[in-house]
Amino acid sequence: MPVDDERMQSLQALRSQFSQALKDFASSSSSFRILRSIPGTHAPSSAPVCTLFVLDSSFNPPSKAHSSLVKSALSSSTLTRRSSSESSDSLTSHAPQRVLFLLATVNADKKPKPADFEDRLVMMTLMAEDLRGRLSNQDSSQKSQSQQDHPPATIPVIDIGITKEPYFTDKATSIAQSNIYTPSSPNPEDDVEQVHITGFDTLTRIFTSRYYPNSDPPLAALEPFLSRHRIHATIRVESSSANDDDLEDEFGTVEKQQGYLDRLAKGGLEGEGLKREWVDQVQLAVDESGEADGVSSTSARECVQGGKIGELGQYVCEGVKEWIVERGLYRD
Predict the structure, then answer these.
(1) What b/e sequence results for 236-271 when a residue is b if at least 16 CB atoms lie within 10 Å of its CB, and e otherwise?
(2) pLDDT tens, position by position, 290-331
(3) Could you give the dihedral angle defined by the CA atoms of residues 19, 24, 25 and 30, in that order, rounded to the nearest 10 degrees?
(4) In 3-state terms, what secondary structure has residue 72?
(5) What pLDDT, on a 0 to 100 scale, did the predictor assign at position 18?
(6) 34-36-40-45 Cα dihedral, nearest 10 degrees
């Protein structure tokens, strides 16, 4: 359904709010800030958090592939908690979770291309609203089809946040040090566990030494992160997420992608500082839904540039599509 005029005016006002927030953030000493929260169910935004799922991206634009990554991570987490709770009286499926869409504004003093940060934040909000609706519909469908007496799933709060940090390890530290999220653990020394959601190609970059030139050995820089947090990497049945042809050739099948992690677990990068036990903090999940096949931010931009607006809905949700058309984004 097209976005009506009243809704569009509301989004234009939201864009103006984001513009001022970005200016305030750029001149502040803060390295992480939440600009907006999409409410969840069963828990207020101020509730303590057990697990924070972080999707860090340029969101240029937010695509259905982004939503698919989040749904994969949340689904795997729900299955794990339900399995571990079979012998427990507690309803661990109600463990407090939260999702963070994180946009890095490292070059906030330069005009971002091809879409302004304000526009990306509006589109992130629209995608978060769409994802919340899809998670709610998915839960209703599963309950109607299942004969088992499972408690209702909790739809998490989805935050829209920004950071000045360029590297994901520093982003994780800035989130933890902000004290925005209150841990649900009674132990004062415990942090909120962060689960960083990635595609497989991003996972290989995380374990690439050249990104950590200030550490010796370089991958030792990952210890503060992997000792506290986890990585959820989604691989596809067809590795269409890889943008690099060499990466496509090397990891073009599910077996090859799983084999990569197996090699790390056997000490494949110990010489560069990656400890074998850290690999236990990485979860690989196969996306067999097909929702993200051939979908990326690049494909969405190319669709607009090619004048194929009618096909844009294949790559982005309806709200994001309407905003792209309204603002004339990605035409050049």
Answers:
(1) beebbbbeeeebeeebeebeebeebbeebeeebbee
(2) 777 889 999 999 999 999 999 999 999 999 999 999 999 999
(3) -160
(4) helix
(5) 98
(6) 50
Among residues 18, 315, 109, 66, the alpha carbon closest in space to that of 330 is found at 315
Which of 7-11, 39-43, 301-305 has the weakest average pLDDT?
Answer: 39-43
The tally of CA atoms less than 13 A away on the side-chain side of residue 74 is 29
pLDDT at position 241 over 80: no
Q: What is the DSSP letter of 185?
A: S
Rounded to the nearest 5 degrees, what angle is found at the Cα of 314, between the Cα atoms of 97 and 310?
A: 140
Which residue has tokens 């097909």?
290
Specify the DSSP class assigned to residue 279.
G
| Distance from C-alpha of 164 to C-alpha of 233, rounded to nearest angstrom | 24
Distance of CA 160 to the CA centre of its chain: 11
Amino acid at the residue 129: E
Is residue 288 very low, low, confident or very high in pLDDT (cuts 50, 70, 90)?
Answer: confident
Which pLDDT belongs to residue 28? 95
Helix 5-26 vs helix 117-145: crossing angle, to nearest 10: 120
- pLDDT surpassing 90 at residue 143: no
Alpha-carbon gap, residue 70 to 241, rounded angstroms: 15
Q: Are 68 and 198 in contact (CB under 8 A)?
A: no
DSSP secondary structure of 211-241: G-TTSSSGGGGGHHHHTT-EEEEEEESS-TT
